[in-house]
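User: New here, any thoughts?
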Amino acid sequence: MKRTAFFAGLALSFGIFGCSEMPSMPAWMPGSGWTTLIDGENGLDNFERVGDANWRAEGGAIVADKGKGGFLLSKTSYKDFELRVEFWADHNANSGIYMRCSEPKNLTDKTCYEANIFDQRPDQTYATGGIVHRGKVL
């Protein structure tokens, strides 16, 4: 089964790195064997936009501030990867990062692993940092 990493949210600023083998140099160094998906220069070149969010590169970050929701779908699938993410979201934002989606045409927290970004979630079991339905926040 082919799996793809999906990225969802309303106002995110992040750097994402995928790797097929362990690099010999630190991940942040050019030539380390890591793939940088967002670097402040390539904007959204590595992603397909899904939904009605107005994703754009702005000030070295990827942001969206209008629309009911949307996803950034990586154009390449990754078998093994590590994510390094920095984000800023309004206190009432409900967002997250979808990974390993089994049904790319049906993106939900049940068909994907969702690293949640939702501090005001009524049930804090899967608040920010939790993997919805799978890994509780401790």
User: Anything to note?
Assistant: Residues 46 and 112 are 20 Å apart (CA to CA).
